[in-house]
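Example record for the data management plan.
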Amino acid sequence: MRKHYLDNIRWFTVFVVVLYHVFYMYNAEGISGTVGKITGLEVQYYDLFQYIVYPWIMMLLFVVSGIASRLYLEKHSDKEFIKSRTTKLLVPSTIGLVAFQFIQGYINASISGVLLANQELPLMAKIIISILSGIGVLWYIQILWIFSVLLVLVRKIEKNRLSDAVAKIEKAPEAVVLVLLVFLGGLVWLSSLILNTPLIVVYRFGLYGLVFFLGYFLFSQERVISVLKKYFPLFSAVALILGTVFCILYFGKNYADKPVNRSPLFALYGWFTCLALFGIFSRFFDFENGFTRWVSKRSFGLYVFHYLGISAFALFIAKPGLVPPVAAYILTLLSGLASGFLLYEIISRLPFFKWAVLGIKKSGTDVQKNEVALGFRL
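Corresponding structural encoding:
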């Protein structure tokens, strides 16, 4: 049976990412790489939204991607899996940078001031900077491709021994599953302390690698989902308490870098929010209608292209003060949604570009086929 709640978790999280990037673009908390504060407010209390969602949004997407990998590999070989992952993930995050995403890179470099501060650089150097800066939100699919390769290696080593051991949880008492999920929070925190790149803070191989593999081995078990569904009020209450404390303690500090993003509170809040959302969506949102079907088919495009609309509007309209701050926030959000949906519809129909930028090899049906492996169509 199709797991509609996973589709709904995914597109919901992508929408949260879009909204997060709007607040992030105009943040007053000193987070770099953005236009920054455009209001006259002494304190932008609504920046709390960033603190509320940042610890769990990408963690949740990696869990979903882990589950999606399990579902895909149940019907396909390792070779087919790697081939589809390479097309869908590696090609857009490498060739796609040269084919299209350099536009995003130029805007990113302009916002950060890199190009302005280095006007003496030769043209080729500026082009290279723009191409590399175009990675933007594609860091997610870059890491996901690496995890996919590692997953195939793990499968060859464990030869279903680990999978069979985890599958025994289907017969475990609820209390055992509940305790396991709670104590895994400690492992999530420990994983957040390792394999973090020093400069580009989003590349967190330890944390995201763990939750990806937990998605593959653990969250793909129906017993686990049934426990999350039953005890979602408990997980929600814990997440609410942890989130409140997190916001009180860290508001005004850089939530995206150490020491905040490596604190136990950051990891535990993110983990329990993931547990709560899986429980809520599996219980109340395991359905499909016209809207959810439409948005699910297009959420990958929204993720890939939304930041172009947000950053372009911020650089050329909001930063010069051409619109009032309130209008800037609203129009930036609309610009992100429009660029995400429209660019996807256009580029998914263009020869070469649909392969280079979106990983679509042949017909439009490959959009859904390839997105299964990414977790954008389950």
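Summary line stored alongside the record: The radius of gyration is 21 Å.
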